[in-house]
User: Which sequence fits this backbone?
């Protein structure tokens, strides 16, 4: 018992030692940022780039400590909103696309015009003015800057496409044709032409999204209601079920997740599939075939674009300084760091002048084209769960044999209801 | 005689067969994880998967150890130990009270314990209310945050384990001691604890596993220097995707402290502790 | 004197109760409060009474998910307890290194990270990349795409949940068995009882509380388990494994419907407390 108590006391004495790291404030201004990046973990280039920006910023501003609290991307926004409600949120926050409208509704972000954007010249603004910049706009003010641009592109195997004798497909018919020609079975292992996935959980938007955008230009009507329970939607679902019926998409695709389908593509199971362009680096690093054959292309009607939007908390005590760090992360030098060290797509048009397109980064033109013309959900109101709803429509048709229109109607109702329309 | 021997050996053989099946099913994901952690990324995504016949590499272990992995292991060890200490002391006292004493509100307090059980065990059910509450108390991201939470989460089960253990100790022992003029303080702190070693061990094991394997609470409550081991493991399945190599490598490393605890204290914890609860 | 003693006895439970109230009960009450309000993106809206609860009941997805949760929980708990009991009775007869080895191996699934174990199983169940199908095919059977098939996915979920907990049940029950006084069993043998009679008349009644304890732990752990279903099957295919904690997670972190998600949390809580109360009643456990 005594030994137990001694041990207990020793443990208590040890605690301040391990905790000391988090209490090195010593009167400095602390800027806290939540992101899914971790500057202390050098295994990812983006982390290294961020670390360098922090070091530079702290050297330029001796009285300031930038404290990054790495968070789980899936729960980060919920935590931020909770912290906002109790008045103890971080100074800088990264928000996902689908949640930004909710964050703006909550009044959790400070207009950047109040901080630094007001001092920017028209030319500078033009340098960053794109769909992502406009996404962070509400009532004429900008609340966020996009720090991590992504486009949901079609990946393909250049070697398989060439062997099938096809050009890079541009229309739905050409995609189907290429998929049929790329499907083959060798040594008992089937390579499917077109990989698709329709999970109920987290997923990248699938073909049905691109189909709807291509054929009718939008997913939602002016009141924000789902607009897929119609003939266009039915045609899209039928196109997908046709792929499964003729065996260019495996039957077991309903419950594949984003990670599954990426792993399977890397293993050589697919000729084509949809995923975020930001994943190209890791796919090239892990694929079991020649990484040079991993290519990306645009989709008919343009790609869906996505990103992480950094803003300043409206309740922050150090808005000015936090804003300056955000500005730093968006500076031309920082952008070059994100691109060169972090292997990201540039956020500034001017950065492009420093980049030469080679065989190693030929995905960039596709991404840039998507950024210019791609589809992004509006931010005027909440559009939660639409990817799940579209996937579930396909699930019900393929898995339960439901009529396509009925399935689309059901999930459209579910979307409308969940989003209070 | 010969027949008897044959029968004996058959039973032995069947026993070993069952043991082998049990071992294979239990260990197969661990085995697969260790194998994966030794493959290079291209080897990992090969169809069909190779069980042997690849060139082992330690590259993923280097990746894992280049970060702050050791710090998070240390944090997890300290948080778990602290939670175990707190949970054992409070759980034992409460267990003793429930098992041996009569007092007002006893069933009400016991109901409190029962309600507490579903709230524990690493579920996400009360994540946001808990987070909001801890924020209001300004208790997030402190070195005492997680130990207190872990102790609280696992306390209901610990109490219950102690109630069961203490009830199994014959009450006559205590009464005899009391007649010998031993103080209540002595009974609680010296006489009973050695008699409930099995309960101490299973409660400690329960709290340890609850604390060691928690991710979801840690992920909202702490970050940075206070990061725990499961958060470090999650780093390899973050926004930029699942990295099988480092993920399995870090999991393999994370299992090692558990194996050490088991091998050193295992006898005491699992089977040694059961040498005879009553006999002490 | 006597009265004083009664007053002091409650003090044993006070420190523990304080900790429980502080970290479990107050958040629960807060969730209960929130469940009566409308919340959108964590902003408190108007008082809606029981509307959030009614919404949970009338949404077919959610009521369906409760059914799936009950089936999955009871199936996996029953398998774990039964096999755990059988293994414990077996190991109890053995001692030394062999028994120790089995106990250690039994506990490994319980101690390794749930999420990584779930991911590894998912991977092993994968149609082309998975170890499972490699073995199945090597044995001459046709491969199964486990996670893509409704029934197979349900079986897989129950399997992995049981896999995780059999060893734990075994060790918990074993601890109870080892606690039985050897003289009792010897006495029953002397009285002429055969091993079956000893089992049913002596052993099982004596380990009642450890069986009850592990049943409660496992039921609760399986009922509120969000991690294994999330990483193993993700609720699919076609909602075949959509357990209620996944719905609750989605309400919180996809739809940001905090009021509704609190209502669902409270319902989950009530369900588990009722199940525990039933167990206690059936086992005639007295405090």
Assistant:
């Amino acid at each position: 018992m005594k030994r137990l108590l001694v041990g207990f006391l020793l443990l208590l004495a040890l605690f301040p030692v391990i905790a000391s790291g988090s209490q090195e404030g010593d009167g400095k201004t602390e800027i806290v940022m939540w992101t899914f990046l971790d500057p202390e973990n050098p295994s990812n280039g983006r982390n290294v780039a961020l670390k360098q920006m922090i070091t530079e910023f702290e050297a330029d501003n001796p009285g300031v400590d930038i404290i990054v609290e790495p968070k789980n991307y899936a729960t980060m926004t919920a935590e931020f909103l909770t912290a906002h409600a109790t008045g103890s949120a971080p100074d800088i926050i990264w928000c996902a696309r689908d949640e930004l409208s909710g964050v703006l509704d909550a009044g959790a972000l400070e207009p950047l015009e109040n901080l630094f954007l007001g001092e920017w010249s028209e030319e500078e603004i033009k340098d960053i003015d794109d769909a992502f910049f406009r996404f962070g706009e509400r009532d004429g003010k900008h609340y966020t800057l996009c720090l991590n641009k992504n486009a949901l592109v079609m990946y393909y195997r250049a070697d398989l496409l060439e062997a099938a004798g096809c050009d890079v497909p541009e229309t739905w018919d050409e995609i189907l044709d290429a998929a049929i020609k790329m499907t083959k079975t060798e040594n008992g292992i089937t390579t499917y032409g077109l990989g698709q996935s329709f999970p109920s959980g987290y997923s990248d938007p699938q073909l049905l999204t691109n189909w709807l955008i291509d054929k009718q230009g939008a997913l939602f009507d002016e009141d924000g209601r789902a607009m897929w329970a119609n003939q266009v939607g039915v045609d899209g679902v039928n196109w997908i079920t046709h792929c499964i019926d003729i065996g260019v998409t495996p039957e077991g695709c309903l419950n594949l997740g984003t990670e599954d389908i990426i792993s399977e593509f890397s293993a050589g199971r697919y000729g084509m599939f949809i995923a975020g362009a930001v994943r190209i680096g890791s796919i090239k690093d892990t694929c079991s075939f020649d990484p040079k054959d991993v290519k990306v292309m645009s989709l008919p009607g343009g790609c869906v674009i996505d990103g992480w939007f950094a803003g300043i908390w409206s309740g922050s005590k150090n808005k000015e300084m936090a804003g300056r760090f955000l500005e730093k992360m968006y500076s031309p030098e920082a952008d070059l760091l994100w691109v060169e060290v972090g292997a990201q797509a540039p956020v500034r048009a001017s950065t492009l002048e420093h980049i030469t397109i080679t065989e190693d980064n030929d995905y960039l033109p596709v991404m840039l084209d998507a950024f210019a013309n791609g589809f992004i959900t509006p931010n005027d109101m909440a559009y939660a769960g639409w990817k799940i709803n579209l996937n579930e429509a396909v699930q019900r048709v393929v898995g339960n044999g439901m009529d396509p229109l009925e399935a689309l109607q059901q999930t459209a109702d579910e979307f409308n209801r969940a989003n209070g329309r | 005689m010969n027949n008897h021997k044959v029968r004996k050996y058959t039973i032995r053989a069947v026993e070993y067969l069952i043991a082998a099946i049990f071992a294979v099913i239990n260990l197969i994901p661990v085995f697969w994880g260790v194998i994966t952690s030794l493959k290079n990324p291209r080897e990992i995504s090969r169809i069909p998967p190779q069980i042997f016949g690849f060139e082992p590499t330690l590259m993923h272990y280097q990746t894992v150890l280049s970060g702050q992995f050791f710090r998070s292991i240390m944090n997890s060890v300290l948080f778990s130990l602290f939670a175990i200490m707190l949970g054992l002391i409070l759980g034992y006292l409460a267990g003793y009270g429930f098992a041996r004493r009569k007092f007002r509100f006893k069933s009400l307090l016991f109901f409190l314990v029962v309600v507490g059980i579903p709230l524990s065990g690493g579920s996400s059910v009360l994540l946001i209310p808990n987070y909001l509450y801890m924020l209001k108390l300004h208790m997030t991201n402190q070195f005492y945050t997680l130990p207190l939470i872990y102790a609280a989460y696992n306390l209901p089960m610990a109490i219950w384990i102690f109630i069961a253990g203490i009830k199994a100790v014959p009450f006559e022992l205590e009464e005899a001691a009391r007649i010998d003029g031993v103080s209540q303080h002595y009974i609680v702190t010296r006489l009973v604890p050695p008699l409930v070693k099995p309960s101490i061990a299973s409660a400690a094991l329960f709290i340890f596993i609850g604390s060691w394997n928690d991710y979801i609470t840690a992920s909202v409550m702490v970050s940075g220097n206070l990061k725990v081991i499961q958060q470090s493991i999650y780093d390899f399945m973050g926004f930029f995707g699942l990295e099988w190599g480092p993920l399995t490598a870090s999991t393999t490393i994370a299992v090692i402290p558990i194996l050490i605890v088991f091998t050193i204290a295992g006898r005491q914890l699992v089977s040694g502790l059961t040498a005879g609860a009553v006999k002490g | 004197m006597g009265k004083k003693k009664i007053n002091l006895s409650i003090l044993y439970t006070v420190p523990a109760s304080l900790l429980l109230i502080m970290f479990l009960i107050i958040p629960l009450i807060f969730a209960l409060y929130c469940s009566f309000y409308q919340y959108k993106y964590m902003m408190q809206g108007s008082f809606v009474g029981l509307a959030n609860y009614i919404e949970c009941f009338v949404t077919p997805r959610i009521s369906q998910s409760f059914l799936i949760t009950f089936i999955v929980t009871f199936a996996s708990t029953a398998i774990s307890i039964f096999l755990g009991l059988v293994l414990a009775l077996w190991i109890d007869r053995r001692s030394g290194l062999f028994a120790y080895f089995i106990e250690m191996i039994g506990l490994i699934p319980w101690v390794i990270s749930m999420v990584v174990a779930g991911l590894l199983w998912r991977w092993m169940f994968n149609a082309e990349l998975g170890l499972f199908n490699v073995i199945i095919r090597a044995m001459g059977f046709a491969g199964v795409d486990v996670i893509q098939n409704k029934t197979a996915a349900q079986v897989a979920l129950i399997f992995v949940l049981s896999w995780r907990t059999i060893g734990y049940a075994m060790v918990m029950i074993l601890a109870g068995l080892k606690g039985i006084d050897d003289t009792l069993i010897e006495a029953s043998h002397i009285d002429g009882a055969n091993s079956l009679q000893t089992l049913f008349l002596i052993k099982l009644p004596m380990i009642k509380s450890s069986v009850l304890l592990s049943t409660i732990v496992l039921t609760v752990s399986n009922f509120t388990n969000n991690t294994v279903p999330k990483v193993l099957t993700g609720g699919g295919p076609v909602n075949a494994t959509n357990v209620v904690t996944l719905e609750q997670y989605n309400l919180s972190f996809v739809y940001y419907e905090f009021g509704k998600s609190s209502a669902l949390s409270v319902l989950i809580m009530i369900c588990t407390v009722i199940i525990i109360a039933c167990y206690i009643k059936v086992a005639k456990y007295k405090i």
User: Anything to note?
Assistant: Chain A touches chain C through 42 residues (CB under 8 Å). Chain A is about 45% helix and 15% strand.
